[in-house]
Amino acid sequence: MSTYLESERLTLRPFVAADADLLIELDSDPAVMRYLTGGAPTPPEEVRDLAIPGILAGYERWDHDLGLFAAHEKDGGAFVGWFCLRHVMEKLGMTLAENIPTPDDMMAVEGAEHGGVRYEITKEQWEGRQASAV
User: Fold this and answer.
1) How far is CA 32 from the centre of its chain?
2) 81/98 same-domain check
3) What is the pTM of this model?
């Protein structure tokens, strides 16, 4: 499997269709889902029929520069979750427009104190990117 990014402890790689069971297991954990759905698991058919195809289509749409990436421990290879990295937006020519405060009901999420971000891209930049993809 191809590596997208490595840290001291983790390896990030693109998801593949065969990873559905990893996401089903993750999304079945109430502790994981408590901030996303109030603890309700994602139905397995939704992961297989919607989530995985959407993730894979995202790689194609963004030339494999953006998307959700599977995270595995380097020591032992255990799947620990997924990441969507923020700083890749600048690599695509997008501009950080503003930092967004975290809503009060999301403050219990780890890292929430950092808030969110909003990026923007001009029409000309978008059209240039679309033309180069053809």
Assistant:
1) 15
2) no
3) 0.63
Model confidence at 8, pLDDT cuts 50, 70, 90, reads: confident
Residue 99: CB atoms within 10 Å: 10
Domain extent at residue 94: 87-134
Give per-residue pLDDT as tens, 9-67.
999 999 999 999 999 999 999 988 887 888 899 999 999 999 999 999 988 887 777 78
Give buried/exposed letters for 30-65 (b at 16+ CB in 10 A, else e).
Answer: eebbeeeeeeebbeeeebeeebbeebbebbeeeeee
- 33 & 59 share domain: yes
d(CA 118, CA 99): 6
Closest CA to 80 of 3, 10, 18, 1: 10
Q: What residue type is 1 in one-letter code?
A: M
